[in-house]
Records
---
Amino acid sequence: MPFQPIEPRRLYRQIADQLRQLIQSGEFAMGTRLPPERDLAAKMGVSRPSVREALIALEVEGLIEVRMGSGIFVIGRESVRMLDNAPGPLEIIRARKLIEGELAAVAARSKDRSLVGDLNESLREMERDIAARTLPIHGDRSFHIRIAQASDNSVLQAVVTQLFDERNSPLSAQLGSHFEREATWMQAVDEHRTVIDAIALHDPEKARMAMGVHLDRSHQRFSAGWTTPGKSN
């Protein structure tokens, strides 16, 4: 028998594998509600964000359904869509914070006279899309990539572009469908504006901090609890 390549399994995939096995073995029957996210994290000895990513993966696979305000229910025994071992959306946000915080500081040192104007136009585009009830992804994307461009480093631009575009993955799209709303997007616009103000003042430390706060809050918005009746999740 030939050797098979060994692929390291991301933590959220390991959690998803365990939950999938429990569902397929009948431990969690069709139509039943899974334990709250908090309880799953405690029983498995992992963080709630990792459980969150695992549950989103199982939802994309068609095994569970997240019903906001009601809980997480088993709706299938066999996966209708298998996912690869891609990084989870919350893991990506944490990576972006490390990289983009420093890039915001670099942008604050930039002498590019068009930078602040371009960033403000990205915000106006986001606001127009929000008002039109359209997902403001294009303006959001251009904001983050424009800051990366101020570094004059094509490798860093490519990294930021790749990480941002991961939000188009099935996992990120499913997570966004639960938590992205007009109010959360307006919060993101305000956070972007704080980053721009720091860049306009040529204050690297404030720019670094403002970008870190923005991505921390993005992580928090996607990590908000799923509340089940009579119990905080």
---
Amino acid sequence: MDAFAVSITSGITIKCLQIKHAFRIAFFFGAFQAFMPVIGWLAGIGLKQYVEAFDHWIAFGLLVFIGAKMIYEAIWIKEIEKKCDPLNLVVLLGLAVATSIDALAVGITFAFLKVSIITPAIIIGCITFVISFAGVNIGNKAGDKFGSTMEVIGGFILIGIGIKILLQHLY
């Protein structure tokens, strides 16, 4: 949802949008969203033996924190004035890393839950690519009417997943 919202914002700031612009942004966001869970998963595997007894609480805490952060930022944090060029390599790398930090935590969670990371990473990367590509185009055509709404919905979904994981391990 973060990548989608930033893609919409990027689409708004690009005056003469071309397909290659949307592809470039979508590629960076998709690649980072696929790569970060793998890094988190590798880190989580190394920590697994130390936290196995309370890993469900960690997964719950991470997902609720990330979800609440998404909701808070969508409602309370006003967007920084959009004067930067999202096609600039340095800006694009910064946006890709910023929108994929949460995916690192998801990778850690997957390791604690003993979930293989390859298939989820590929799916996450592909879906992020598609929604980012669409987001750039939507932003360029329709503006930013729905960006924060999507972040709020995504935040509630993450919190719901966290609650489900906790309940499965407690009962």
